[in-house]
Predict the 3D structure of the following.
Amino acid sequence: MSSPYLRQLLVGRDVGRGNAAGTQMQNFVYLIGDRDAGQCLVVDPAWDVEGITQCAAADGMTITGALVTHYHPDHVGGSFYGHSIEGLARLIELTPCPVHVHKNEAEGVRKVTGLSASDLVPHEGNDRVQVGELEVELLHTPGHTPGSQCFRMGDALVSGDTLFLQGCGRVDLPGGDPEEMRRTLQQRLARLPDDLVLYPGHAYGGEHAPLSEVRRINPVFPRRDPSRIG
């Protein structure tokens, strides 16, 4: 037996309180896993890593790995517009664990965080990571960056900066690709059912909503079209 566990943490509210830059960026960090096993993965640990680990511990959960949506420092740590952001390197100090990245994102993660190749587990799209008795599916969703990923577990989709409730991630930064983002939104994610609940990487337009609602309110995310699926 197992039961899914998902906790959404908003930087500046739930963790990183008093951090002006983090509060302005409105990043979400996620803890996802198996409540019965007491194990979880942390998605994009940044800004206040000790606070994140304390939230997991308060829920009786042990962090057994990290999932990276993409390599930007506000999600994994590093230098960002003059700010030094703690992230994966600090997590490895506090809770040594594997860091799961898409293979196209590994170099970027190493560059901005200072981690070594041995710290990272590179993945292909549609790989799965086990946490307790549950599996998390890794969906390769390039566009914002070459190795951007979304994570699907049960009825939840954690989307990083690929898709927000209103809008999508920028494609004018290094590694951004408008054509890939268009394919991600109109083809790769078009296959997903309306009853999945979207949990984005930033609180831009809201915190979470079913994909059916996102399709209704998000001008860049088309309604589900069966002719595109297959």
About this structure: Residues 4-222 form a domain with the Metallo-beta-lactamase; Chain A fold (CATH 3.60.15.10). The chain is about 25% helix and 30% strand. Helices lie at 20-25, 49-58, 73-76, 88-94, 106-113, 178-188, 211-217. The CA atoms of residues 193 and 211 lie 7 Å apart.
